[in-house]
User: Which sequence fits this backbone?
């Protein structure tokens, strides 16, 4: 592939599965023993903030024990070597793409459309702070001192982040690649249709066919830890 071309990559929970992080829709609708509606909505937070904060504290602690897998490593290798445009749009709130970039000394070009576990958002002053500890004990916001921090993750019914930037990147793209996502959650599930409408080539790499699989020009099925390194080798070989 011509090295000056622009690539937009969408990643989902499937790319982190081989790092030991559960996907959302793999376990009979349960998300680590909790119904998603009980922990991932603004209504749940209003109803039972302690449950929601404790749940996210547990997730935040857990992801810090996980490591990037060969799929994250391959995308970081692509980022370090690709001369064209590249944007990794992730629905994941873990930091495994970023950590995979470390051996290359790069800050990968990653956009977290559903927020980040390692950020806290102050609902009083609106500041975002890097946060690795718990929130359930209601710590003070480092900027304003209010005890009004929540996880900086996008819950069901909330607007994903940085949609303008994502659409701008899709308009400039030559290739759109979707990795490890079920295609069940919009607006991310609609990026392939947008890309198709814009005449962009589209490729899906997933364990099984996603809900929007028929939209892709090509689908390759298998574990991300195998498919992604092989695809990156192909792209970098030109
Ligand atoms: N390699 C590749 N794909 C995999 C692997 C793997 N090892 N393991 C699972 N998958 C695939 C599954 O087949 C499934 O299609 O990854 C996909 C994961 O789908 P979901 O669990 O629905 O995760 P995702 O698409 O990221 O969910 C989107 O939903 O709950 C919200 O905000 C949350 O960002 C999340 C959004």
Assistant:
């Amino acid at each position: 592939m011509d090295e000056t071309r622009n690539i937009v990559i969408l990643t989902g929970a499937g790319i982190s599965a081989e790092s030991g992080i559960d996907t959302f829709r793999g376990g009979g609708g349960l998300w680590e023993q909790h119904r998603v509606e009980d922990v991932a909505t603004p209504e749940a937070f209003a109803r039972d903030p302690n449950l929601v904060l404790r749940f996210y504290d547990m997730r935040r602690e857990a992801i810090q024990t996980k490591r990037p897998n060969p799929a994250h490593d391959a995308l970081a290798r692509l980022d370090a070597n690709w001369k064209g445009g590249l944007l990794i749009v992730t629905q994941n709130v873990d930091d495994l793409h970023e950590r995979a970039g470390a051996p290359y000394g790069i800050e990968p070009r990653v956009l977290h459309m559903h927020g980040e576990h390692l950020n806290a958002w102050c609902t009083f002053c609106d500041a975002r702070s890097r946060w690795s500890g718990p929130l359930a004990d209601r710590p003070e916001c480092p900027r304003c001192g209010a005890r009004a921090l929540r996880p900086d993750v996008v819950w069901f019914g909330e607007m994903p982040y940085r949609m303008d930037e994502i659409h701008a990147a899709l308009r400039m793209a030559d290739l759109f690649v979707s990795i490890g996502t079920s295609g069940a959650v919009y607006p991310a599930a609609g990026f392939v249709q947008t890309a198709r409408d814009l005449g962009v080539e589209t490729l899906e790499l997933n364990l099984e066919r996603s809900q929007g699989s028929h939209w892709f020009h090509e689908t390759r099925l298998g574990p991300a830890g195998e498919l992604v390194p092989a695809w990156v080798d192909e792209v970098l070989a030109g």
